[in-house]
Fold these 4 entries.
Entry 1:
Amino acid sequence: MATLLNKLEIPQTSSNVDVYIIDNGARISGLPGSSMMDPVLPGYEKGGRVPSFSFLIHHKPTDLRLLFDLSVRANWELAFSPAFIKGVQRMGLEVEVGKDVADVLVANFVNPSDIDAIIFSHHHFDHTGDASKFPSSVKLLVGPGYKKAFLPGWPASKNSFETTSDLYEGREIIELDFTADDPKVSSIGNFQAYDYFSDGSFYILSTPGHTIGHLSALARTTSEDDRSTFIFMGGDIIHSHAVFRPTSKHPLPEKIPTPNCRPFTSHSCPSERFAQMHRLYLEPDGKILSRTTPFSRVVGPEHDLVESQHSANKLANFDGEENVLTIPAHDEGLLQVLEFFPRKANEWKAKGWKKEGHWRWLAPCMQSNDVSKL
């Protein structure tokens, strides 16, 4: 039996996983808005100073633990090739180093040997962290085509300078292929989904476009009274909320609320000025479309821009559901809302994180246009 979440058919189950969001302190800045969205919204011309979240997943029935992404490794400037370091500098990126995820775990009494597998959303340095700090018994899970495209990494392969070979040496690398005849594979929200624990508690999703083999994940965080809640771990499925918000499911409200008086604005503010920024505002029915369709289109140095747009469109269907909390890897706006490891994230809905965080990404637009005076 499936529970229907406005065209998202997710099988109902009593199983769920414990989810912990890890902020290791890394911050990345210098990515211009023109590489994330088209058109660029006011306030986003120079981008922000963003985190790179990781996630710890605990499946209590088996006592297995997974990690989804590892953020930036603390010694990345020493670990990567000189050519890669120069490339980052040419892009104008500034990286503030945090702690390695393995060290964050140890500081909170979780041994790296307790991890069964690490899932890489993709091969970029701000997601693969330092897997060498985990014992060789810890497997790596990667997406379709990953091995051929990115292994063995630098310096084992001089042409694979975007990733490092020490992440993979002596370790089992499992490449998911999402074949239709695999009983673990299904379709959820038009994404191919791999039911990792075979009980509907945690799905690995194929979300192609940004890179070859890009993965996201969907974790069931509660499953009471046939009303499950979920956290969507996005990785880099998108780089801007403007490409998947608003939607007809979760339209831009007349006033943007500020629950709990968190520092976004001192009071709820009218949203008409935001609507006027929308690419479709001056089109026929633009006043309606500006509140029910994403502000911008996907742009940037994507491996497959068409697939990236498709993935963003599918993500919007998840994000519009009140029972799904979407967390892209670099969501700066959620830093003031979420509670981080070692605190658990399962009660996100009861704590109002979605309601409070959904429109906080508009803060740069507000600051640019002084919307609060409307």
Note: The chain has one domain: 2-245+304-348.
Entry 2:
Amino acid sequence: MAAIAASAQSMRLTSGRLPKWAPWALLLGSFAAAAVVFGVAAAGGDLADFNIAGTLIVGMILYIVLIAVVSSIAESSRKAMDRIMTALVSTAFVIALLPLVSLLWTVVVNGIQRFDAEFFTFSMRNIVGEGGGIVHAIWGTVLITLLAALIAVPVGLMTSIYLVEYGRGRVARAITFFVDVMTGIPSIVAGLFIYSVFALFVRPGISMGFMGALALAVLMIPVVVRGSEELLRIVPNELREAAYALGVPKWLTIVKVVLPTSIAGITTTVMLAIARVIGETAPLLLTAGYTLSLNTNLFDGQMMTLPVFAYNQYMNQGTNPDAAVARAWAAALTLIAIVMVLNLVARLIARLFAPKTAGR
């Protein structure tokens, strides 16, 4: 039996077709060889010195060369060209992912150093060197972003419902135009707008979490409107017409048919809007301000947020630059983790509330 299996394997290698495992083996071997080369180059240094981008690029180049040679020997030149083109397309995909992979690798390697109990239970009050934490920044980010979502999501969703279900003529075109304009405004303009309004009607120099939430809501609304509008438009008209034929009023059709049908996509849109604003720094510097202490009152006093915390720790390193930079990296990693958790929650909500089909 072993001789028969070996003979069959030999025939596959010489009959014009590589076995299915061969390209994957060559790919893994190429990445392993590139990792060894760059690992030796970074030997003796920090883990962050390992060049993951170079490893991926060199690995893909080595794989293209190997698959071209092996395929041209074991297969036809036409099949070899097909495999080369497939490898080039895959390489383009890897290059597109390089910034994300490199960013995540750098943040994780540099931020994991301060992922301890103290970092998540203490604030920066009375801390001038090592130690301290981001509990005040986490509370500020969660509360401000939550309030911004509570403001922006109903406004954006109802605007998209109006544009899809009711809007006609000049009013709808004007709303669409201004939403498109708002989508492209710089984030600092939203912060300046909210700050100017409160400076005129309350007092100059005021800063509080509620202002930061309003600034983020201004940035979230156009994202929610555009995303929800497209999702509502792809709901089949047959569903609406079936509800109307049964005598269901328009508003109830929207609530019971249109929104449940598109709830999964709308939830994803909301998460994208939150991810769009949760890392904003400029508008929060102008509106929410900066503090070293924990403040959970959105309507009284300045509040710290994670992006502002990371920015301040990097720009004002104080008496211990290494500790400040480590806190900045850890805050950035925490922010990424929060966004990831929000996306997981959004997927769970979308799965729970998505319309049930016959196959589910």
Note: The chain has two domains: 10-112, 135-353.
Entry 3:
Amino acid sequence: MTETRPMSRSSMSRSAKTDLAISLVLIAAAIALPFMVDSRYILGQIVLALFYATIASQWNLLFGFSGIFSLAQMAIFAFGGYATAMFCFYFGWNVWAALVPGALGAVLFSLVVGLACLRLTGVYVALLTLAIAQTMYLLIVTDTECFVMVGSVCRQFTGGAVGFARFGDLGTRALLRAQWLVGNYAIIAVLFALTMVFTYAIVKSPIGLAFRALKDNPGYAVARGVNRFQAQLLVFGISAFFTGLAGGFYAAHFQAIGPGVLSMSQLMFIIAIVVVGGVGTFWGPLVGTVVLVLADELMRESGEFRTLGLGLIIALSVVLMPKGLVGRFGDLVHWLARRRASPDSNTAVSNIVQSPAPAGK
């Protein structure tokens, strides 16, 4: 039986150095990007991609690192966006003052979801969380009762099928005027960077080790003293804070939030991002976002073949690269490292050929 050895300190150091180098390159690229992109449309799509990457990174934390197959991620995102919009709309708060309370509201919502899933595993968690998300969608779109009169217009408590609009923004329009989109890009890029840094710290911490243990071998993890219920609620809450915060920034960036963010296509796109990039890999959500958003943009004029093309990319990724792009690249790097570390087979063969033959009897 092959013995499984823990990762050595030197290999962990190399991994940390690699992650640091990638982070520095991405930071430099993010700073240079506004000076290289003249099109407002492209910059707007990049901002949207950063939202996708943020949501995907937190779903990856929930499923890829913790093994909880929740389908309520877009519901938590929508809850954060709606809570931020409602604080601004009903109480007249500034958007910046409403962002953190909106994110905390998303955390409370996620804890309710987590409590409902405590005694469930696998597909049952997926079905229950999907049912919660769809119920939230139906409650919003069927809300037709008048809650408050805004001028001569009657508004529903949740905004109904219309949602909320023009409740405030991030302040960049007044501050930067024509360059407000660059300001919003910088803010969302910082949000994504903070999310990734915090996620990295969680994954590398003892808490992250407990999450991975519960995913890989729940029975052994519980036997070693890991409290499954506490860990599950904790990862739900951590993931929900940044997802809800991203929802608030999304609402503020577009100055609108509606039930469309709860659509099944949005949820499937987030899951596809993680699958293509690599489930359970740190950089997978970012790589998957780049690949799928770029592919979606290139096929924008393809009409009905746009969805078919995206489906084909996802199917090929699942069949040919079960570990995703990042996982495949990691396997290639490990293979090259083992090949360099092992003796050269050609040299070994030549030594055998050149060695003198033993004397006959």
Note: The chain has 15 helices and four strands.
Entry 4:
Amino acid sequence: MDADRCWQAVCERDANFDGRFVFSVRSTGIYCRPSCPARRPNRANVQFHADPGAAEAAGFRPCKRCSPQGASPKEQLDALVAAACELLDAAGKPPTLGELAARIGLSPSHLARAFKTRTGLTPRAWAEARRQQRLAAALPQSRSVLDAALEAGYSGTRALYEGASSVSPARLRQKGAGERLRYAIAPCPLGRVLLAATDRGVCALLFGDDEAQLENELEQRFSAAERLRDDDGLGDWLGRVLTQLDEPAQTAGLPLDLHGSAFQLRVWRALTGIPSGQTRRYGELAEQLRSHPRAIARACASNAVGLLVPCHRVVGADGSTGGYRWGVPRKVELLRREGAASRDGEDG
């Protein structure tokens, strides 16, 4: 063991070193894990041991505060959050935060913080996400959307159409079943671009770094559809997209086949009305559509047709760039190109 590195871990209470060594304090006769929250000991009194057994063989007893011979407090909390996830997954009706906390043995506020830290979601959001996953799994095999909804734990189908979803439940049920998609991929100023189309128009325009990534994203959205690469057949459409990227004033003007909920379609139609070289704030669109900025942001994030449905032209309340499905650097570059073309047009 590197004594200097071990001491640094003790000073930083670095939980990443828990289980890799313990340290003992000669003046107290106890040994601790590196993340022990107790007051830092004098370096001259500290020794390092490979494991609790070695520390006890040297005559030291375990710290009652950090319990170095068992699971760490962090590991114990990890286990409790995992148990909470299992309870949420198994429950037909998701329990309230108070009910869940009582089952787990933590206070509601402690459980909420620990759950959000480890999963990135609140318990309620976790339960809803899992219910949506069950719905997605049930839809292809169910006789109807209602049957799938009941199987997933919904009381009916109303909530499915009220929520923000990338596709309607009926379309999700089929996952593109019966549709034939053609797609083409080409290099572009933003990396690579994939254009996919049905007989009705462009259904996806995706940006990425490599072809495998783009094809995987297309497959996830249209897993049951027949997908055929057709670089030659879509060459003209793809060329018009590349022209718009290079010369933003030259819009591609392609027909669109947008797959989304009624609310998402309203948002996407509003996006197509934002002129090149201009931006709108989420709040402005929310006021226009009598909605909430967060709902607008979710609809923008679910847009699968980049550039042609210009969600990159929506910015934060303070004018900051905000997020972008295909990466903020691409959004910044699109806005830069459109802004430069707009200024050139005014000068001309």
Note: The first strand starts at residue 22 and ends at 25.
